[in-house]
Write a structure and sequence with these properties.
The protein is mostly helical and about 90 residues long. The protein is built from three helices and no strands.
Length: about 90
């Protein structure tokens, strides 16, 4: 597996985990959250964009599995869509 694909997978997975964790925490405390949750969501956005960049860059490399590359890009897009949906709610 290409290193870019692995980095993209880790960033996309961490981004989704941070977003879902912040959503659960916000629901549990009834919406009264500190500024740390906003910073975690910004970190999640940066990780999703970085994961998408690494995922798209991995397609330039010959070695590695194309299905894994495609999966990391899809995970990064899912993380971005989730953040956009939360932004508009």
């Amino acid at each position: 597996m290409v290193a870019d694909t692995l980095i993209s997978f880790l960033f996309a997975t961490a981004s989704i985990a941070f977003t879902v964790g912040c959503l659960i925490y916000s629901t549990v405390v009834g919406g009264r959250v500190s500024d740390r949750v906003g910073i975690l969501l910004l970190m999640s956005l940066v990780m999703a964009v970085t994961g998408l960049g690494f995922g798209l860059h991995s397609f330039r490399l010959v070695e590695g599995d194309n299905n894994a590359k495609r999966m990391t890009v899809i995970l990064s897009v899912i993380a971005l869509v989730l953040l956009v949906i939360l932004f508009f709610l």
